[in-house]
Write a structure and sequence with these properties.
Oligomer: heterodimer
Structural class of chain B: alpha+beta
CATH topology of the largest domain in chain A: Enolase-like, domain 1
CATH architecture of the largest domain in chain A: 2-Layer Sandwich
Structural class of chain A: alpha+beta
Number of helices of chain B: 19
CATH superfamily of the largest domain in chain A: CO dehydrogenase flavoprotein, C-terminal domain
Largest sheet of chain A: 5 strands, antiparallel
Largest sheet of chain B: 7 strands, mixed
Order of helices and strands of chain A: EHEHEEEHHHHHHEEEEEHEEEEHHH
Largest interface: A-B, 27 and 26 residues
CATH class of one domain in chain B: Alpha Beta
Radius of gyration of chain B: 28 Å
Number of helices of chain A: 12
Distance between the termini of chain A: 54 Å
Number of strands of chain B: 30
Shape of chain A: globular
Radius of gyration of chain A: 19 Å
Strand content of chain B: 15-25%
Helix content of chain A: 25-40%
Helix content of chain B: 25-40%
Distance between the termini of chain B: 65 Å
CATH superfamily of one domain in chain B: Aldehyde oxidase/xanthine dehydrogenase, molybdopterin binding domain
Bound molecules: flavin-adenine dinucleotide
Shape of chain B: globular
Strand content of chain A: 15-25%
Chain lengths: 294, 793
């Protein structure tokens, strides 16, 4: 590993000033489960590594109308948090299917997003939940919808001096019902070949009503960034969530995907799997709706 | 023949679940692996790989590398004596004239630390003139193909040509025939500890090497060839080894390179592979392209079989080139088949060099033989279990290949697994559609399946059998092993065994054998087995041979000690030695448990402290009563005993994703006698895990000679969560030649798993996969293809 200076500031302002001083040659450190691997392989050679671990408040989970999710919340914290389990179960379930237990004690939600890997597991469900990113930099604070957060593989809208402080996730009935499925080669320690998250909001909270007020479908690992399948969403919006519409939406989501061939999977299979996972999750939401209502 | 003077039902340590002698040290991190060693002044060695597939080396410039601070030696093929080594006598430590694969070693550096070594490697400039590369065995055999080794006439290294009966003609008399083509992938050992060597020369120019090898004495010889120095000046020490699975069966270039770096720097040099290197620079299992057909008689008698195998050995030949010997054994002798033909071509290419891996050809051949057995059964309208039982080998028979089968529990294995998996459900299990359990990885067979006609989940059951050498394997002229047992004044028994412990637990099994013979506790036995300057000669740990061969040697040595102690005790007690026994640490009159006796260590002291005293020791040598196969016909009894097994699996297929999940494995293996049932189960379970990986997820993806997935992330071995419950059933047939009746079990566990899964997949959804691994993508493609055919477009 190339030598670097290690900083461990106590405030966000100081952290962002150190990053600004290093002018693109600094990196924030959260759990380090992505960062250190790249540094050891010589892919990244930052001159400054700025730990976020002494900055207070970054690992908070609070529900106050909306969910505030600190960037340094670890995957294990998500799994254990009563708030997450009760009101945003998709996030706990997603975290549980990531990596292995040792990595989950270190890995953070913010690190997963800021790393901006197209296959990162946290991005699709958080986008499906319509989350916003609160970003702090030398110039102050800004809020960006996660829809606009990712720019390309490994690239987000964060400037070199900017730090993700927290995510704001609206709470509504959709949150309770959102789901995420990841297709992997094995049951643990694997990166998604395809990830699909769906969230549906129904028009009326009455038993058996299956009219979709809104739907969000987000695809992971099938494009340079996590991708909203907007045409598929449109098919469901304002329409009844039935088998035909679901099949149609799933097919259109597969068309919207822009997958590539790589060592993990072929583009053909990825596209097929977008359809299968989208259909399966929408059917599950439909079935649940028929069984237990809202 | 051994004569067991022990009552089978009255063993004190044989058959007991004794924990491994080194279990606590390993579990608490105290065990010293090679990677833990540190010598004063020790340098780090690193290798520069060519990364071009086939090229002439024009020039290597090391001048800038030599100037890097902390660098103590930079070597290339130019600076060093080039001595050929290896099974094909075709490899050299560093390549001087040309490179034949991307992983060819072209230069090496010894430096004070990793960073300096890496910096130096990056500064070495190599000029190549590229040659046309050969990326498959087929391309290498094509007329006019460039030569990988120019001193040879063509790229065919070796053709194996085996036959018994008259297969050609016999197919005319067969009532049903199946013919299929198979594609088997590159897979790799991925042992927990990566390859390691630490070399140091003393002032007399003698080399000591700490090594993860499985063949210390052959390494001594091979290194002497590679380095051009006398074997007697080479000492190999094996620290605790973290797995090998066949990786250590040959000398590979990194070992002589490590020695050369030590020589040039005058310091101890440690060369430890990174995980990436472990994937791209160790020898893998050969990919195979196989064509096979089998014919049967209407009544279900196997009649004729004809297989041809094309093996891509890569750029250099290792002992892995001998795997066809094992493949032909499965093809010709797993079942009784009167006519068989087997041809295998081992071919050079510019792909990564290949080598030996657990099973040694058997997981491959068992896959194609056992999937064809199911196809034949279906054609005959016969139950696959019944079909196998009808053709199974029986005890005390000789196969046309010349295998002398003595103990044989294959039929028991088959009936046992069929019963335990619930074979009678096979015809109905696949039509029960199950509902999707939403979390893809939490499905367990205990959950009661919910019937749901719309569900994409299907279940299936499958079976497959295996035959494996279990009494050594004479692939070298000697299949021998030596052992010395001695007892000291305090009753500490030491077994000095030629054998090699790579984590399999053999050393404790050997201690159990010695403890049983001498009537002492296993804890009273120390096993010394790690230093060629101390231990007697042995071929190495391979071919599931250690417990059988080294166990017999230890048995012989321990018996000599026992006789000496009994003789002397007889004088002390004034009785005939024939009436004495050793048990519970005492020598006493047989059957007289309450009677007076003497502690064995007291007898030993008495033998030391007297005028014409002597050391209390014994030396055993065991070389099994077997033959090298005939060099033209490949016939002969290669092993002194054969192990058998059957595995039945239940699987679940998600027809929307193609993904297969194994719900349960029942594995019954005939091991003669389980010296330690816990280790037998360990071997079966570990084998089955490799088998599940081979079946479903493991493949080194090689494109244009480059390995695309050299990491534990993208080379997917099953994790604990992917493994189903494994029910191991130990079948004991008390082999007449094995120590206490034991036969080998080191490789068998992984042989039949992939075939059993493939057969279950067919049972579930009616598709035959002839390419491994059966990934979700491949299964889905096959399902779509089947759907298309059925819809007639
Ligand atoms: C064995 C293993 C298994 C894995 N399995 C999975 C998996 O199943 N699914 C998956 O999606 N990922 C997986 N990962 C990847 C990784 O663990 C996750 O992406 C993790 O969430 C990263 O978080 P971290 O806190 O470790 O990030 P770090 O490594 O600390 O940081 C990652 C990147 O984000 C930047 N960064 C971190 N926090 C901030 C912040 N608050 N503001 C600005 N920039 C920031 C860093 O500078 C760095 O560039 C795995 C990794 C390993 C080693």
């Amino acid at each position: 590993m190339k030598p670097f200076t290690f900083f461990s500031p106590r405030t966000l302002a100081e952290a962002s000033r150190i990053l600004a001083d290093h002018n693109g040659n600094g990196r924030a450190l959260a759990g380090g489960t992505d960062l250190l691997i790249r540094m050891k392989r010589g892919q990244w050679t930052p001159r400054a590594v700025v730990s976020l671990n002494r900055i207070a408040g970054l690992n908070e989970i609070a529900l106050n109308g909306e969910l505030k999710l600190g960037a340094r919340v670890t995957l294990n914290q998500l799994i254990r948090s009563p708030i997450i389990r009760e009101y945003f179960p998709v996030l706990a379930a997603t975290a549980r299917n990531m990596a292995g237990v040792q990595v989950r004690t270190l890995a953070t939600v913010g690190g997963n997003l800021c790393n901006a890997s197209p296959s990162a597991d946290m991005s699709p469900p958080l986008m499906a939940l319509n989350a916003r990113a609160v970003i702090v930099g030398a110039a102050g604070e800004r809020v960006v919808s996660l829809d606009e957060f990712f720019v390309g593989p490994g690239k987000s809208v964060l400037q070199s001096d900017e730090i993700l402080r927290e995510l704001i996730v609206p709470y509504n009935s959709r949150a309770a019902r959102a789901s995420y499925k990841k297709l992997e080669h094995r049951a643990a320690m694997d990166i998604a070949m395809v990830g699909v998250s769906v969230a549906v909001e129904f028009q009326k909270a009455e038993f058996g009503n299956r009219n979709c007020a809104d739907a969000r479908i987000v695809l992971g690992a099938v494009a340079p960034t996590p991708l909203r399948a907007k045409r598929a969403e449109e098919i469901l919006r304002g329409n009844i969530l039935n088998k035909e519409n679901i099949a149609h939406a799933a097919r259109v989501a597969a068309e919207e995907a822009r997958p590539i061939d790589d060592v993990r999977s072929s583009a053909w299979y990825r596209r097929e799997m977008v359809e299968a996972l989208t259909r399966r999750q929408l059917m599950e939401i439909r079935d649940l709706r028929l069984e237990i209502g809202d | 023949m051994r004569s067991w003077r022990w009552d089978v039902n009255n063993y004190s340590v044989i058959g007991k679940r004794v924990p491994k002698l080194d279990a606590l040290d390993k579990a608490t991190g105290r065990a010293q692996y090679g990677h833990d060693l540190n010598l004063p002044g020790m340098l780090v060695g690193k290798i520069l790989y060519a990364n071009v597939p086939h090229a002439r080396i024009l020039n290597i410039d090391i001048s800038r590398a030599e100037k890097v601070r902390g660098v103590k030696a930079v070597i290339t093929g130019e600076h060093n004596p080039v001595h050929k080594f290896g099974y094909g006598a075709d490899n050299t430590p560093l390549k001087a004239d040309k490179v034949r694969s991307r992983r060819d070693e072209v230069a090496a550096v010894a430096a004070m630390d990793d960073d300096a070594a890496n910096e130096a490697l990056a500064l070495i400039r190599v000029e190549y003139a590229e040659l046309p590369p050969l990326y498959s065995a087929e391309a290498a055999l094509a007329a006019g193909a460039p030569l990988v080794h120019e001193e040879r006439a063509n790229n065919l290294f070796l053709r194996y040509n085996y036959a018994h009966g008259d297969a050609e003609r016999a197919f005319d008399d067969a009532d049903e025939i199946v013919e299929e083509e198979y594609f088997l992938p590159y897979v790799t050992h991925a042992a927990m500890e990566t390859s390691f060597a630490l070399a140091v020369f003393d002032l007399q120019n003698r080399l000591t090497m700490w090594s993860t090898t499985q063949i210390p004495f052959l390494l001594q010889r091979d290194l002497s060839e590679a380095l051009g120095m006398p074997g007697r000046d080479i000492r190999i020490i094996q620290p605790t080894i973290g797995g090998a699975f066949g990786r250590g069966l040959d000398v590979y270039p990194f070992e002589p390179i490590c020695a050369l770096l030590a020589k040039h720097s005058g310091k101890p040099v440690r060369l430890a592979f990174t995980r990436d290197e472990e994937f791209f620079a160790t020898a893998t299992r050969q990919p195979a392209h196989v064509k096979m057909r089998t014919g049967v008689k209407r009544d279900g008698t196997l009649w004729a079989r004809d297989a041809s195998v094309l093996l891509d050995a890569g750029a250099y030949i290792s002992w892995g080139a001998v795997t066809p010997l094992v493949m032909m054994e499965t093809t010709a002798s797993l079942y009784r088949v009167p006519h068989a033909k087997f041809v295998a071509d081992v071919v050079y290419s510019n792909n990564p060099p290949t080598g030996a891996m657990r099973g040694y050809g058997n997981p491959q051949s068992t896959f194609f033989v056992e999937t064809q057995m199911d196809m034949l059964a279906e054609k005959l309208g016969m139950d696959p279990v019944e079909f196998r039982l009808k053709n199974a080998n029986i005890p005390n028979s000789e196969t046309p290949q010349g295998l002398k089968i003595t103990s044989c529990g294959l039929r028991e294995c088959i009936t046992e697994v069929a019963e335990r998996i619930g074979w009678e459900r096979r015809s109905s299990v696949s039509s029960n559609q199950l509902s999707v359990v939403s979390n893809q990885s939490s499905v367990s067979s205990n959950q009661s399946p919910v019937s749901n006609p719309q569900s994409p989940i299907r279940r299936g059951i499958g079976i497959a059998c295996t035959l494996n050498v279990g009494g050594g394997a004479r692939i070298y002229r000697s299949d021998g092993c030596g052992a010395t047992v001695k007892v000291d004044d305090f009753g500490r028994v030491t077994l000095i065994s030629g054998s090699t412990e790579i984590g399999q637990g053999s050393e404790t099994a050997l201690a159990q054998i010695v403890a049983e013979v001498l009537g002492v506790r296993v804890d009273d036995v120390t096993v010394i087995n790690s230093d060629t300057s101390v231990k007697p000669w042995d071929v190495g740990t391979h071919a599931s041979r250690t417990t059988f061969i080294a166990g017999n040697a230890a048995w012989i040595a321990a018996n000599q000690v026992r006789e000496k102690i009994l003789d002397h005790a007889a004088q002390m007690l004034n009785v005939s030695p024939n009436h004495l026994e050793m048990r519970d640490g005492m020598v006493r009159v047989q059957g007289d448990a309450a009677g007076k006796g003497i502690a064995y260590d007291k007898v030993v002291r008495a033998m030391h402290y007297r005028e014409d005293g002597n050391v209390v020791s014994g030396t055993g040598w065991y070389d099994p009563p077997t033959k090298l196969v005939d060099k033209d016909t490949y016939k002969g009894n290669i092993s002194a005993a054969y192990g058998f097994g059957a595995q039945a699996v239940e699987i679940e297929v998600d027809t929307e994703t193609g993904q297969v999940r194994v719900l349960k494995i029942v594995a019954a293996h005939d091991v003669g006698r389980a010296i330690n049932p816990m280790y037998v189960e360990g071997q079966i379970e570990g084998g089955a895990q490799m088998g599940v990986g081979y079946a479903l997820s493991e493949e080194l993806q090689v494109r244009e000679g480059r390995i695309l997935n050299p990491s534990l992330l993208d080379y997917r071995m099953p994790t604990a969560l992917d493994m189903p419950p494994i029910e191991s059933v130990i079948i004991e047939t008390a082999d007449p030649e094995g120590p206490f009746g034991a036969k080998g079990v080191g490789e068998m566990g992984g042989n039949p798993t992939a075939a059993a899964i493939a057969n279950a997949l067919y049972n579930a959804v009616g598709i035959r996969m002839n390419q491994l691994p059966m990934t979700g993508e491949r299964v889905l493609r096959a399902l779509k293809e089947k759907e298309r055919m059925e819809n007639g477009d």
